[in-house]
Design brief:
Order of helices and strands: EEEEEHHHEH
Largest sheet: 6 strands, mixed
Helix content: 25-40%
Number of helices: 4
Radius of gyration: 15 Å
Structural class: alpha/beta
């Protein structure tokens, strides 16, 4: 298992999908499906691999009851950035920018997520109450950007 990944057994709202647009014609590869979902929401069919992407373990959740396969805390925002943001919507634009900078400096930690997304659906799990302003949303969009085919000049 890659460094920074914590394997857990899988145990049996609506996810937000972040899909890369399909390129080309009918023979092109399907879009990579990356969803974001609260870790406390029950698992749904078709979510694929469920990965917790928060730095801290979700409150009130026992490790033996974890509803996901992996915990990759190395892709979460730094403690300093996480504490500064505090889920304040007015800080969202700056949080996004700073978190993307952190992700760019830590591309090796993203490799397990990229590998999973290339194989099938990926659901990024987070504990925050805000479904729009959280690290998983930024991470999903960042991964989609990395997975998108580049157009040559």
């Amino acid at each position: 298992m890659p460094a920074g990944c914590h394997g857990l057994q899988i145990h049996a709202g609506s996810p937000r999908q972040h899909t890369a647009p399909e390129q080309g014609g009918p023979m092109s590869q399907p879009a990579h499906v990356i969803q974001t979902r609260r870790v406390y929401a029950p698992a749904l069919a078709g979510e694929g691999t469920r990965v917790l992407v928060d730095r801290l373990w979700p409150r009130g959740m026992k490790k033996e009851d974890a509803p996901f396969q992996l915990w990759i805390k190395d892709v979460a925002p730094s403690n300093t950035l996480r504490q500064w943001f505090g889920h304040a919507p007015e800080r969202w634009p700056e949080f996004r920018k700073q978190y993307e900078t952190e992700l760019s400096a830590n591309l090796s930690a993203l490799q397990p997520l990229l590998d999973i997304a290339r194989q099938g659906p990926l659901t990024l799990l987070y504990a925050a109450h805000d479904e729009t302003h959280n690290n998983a949303v930024v991470l999903a969009e960042y991964l989609q950007h990395l997975l998108s085919p580049r157009k040559s000049d």
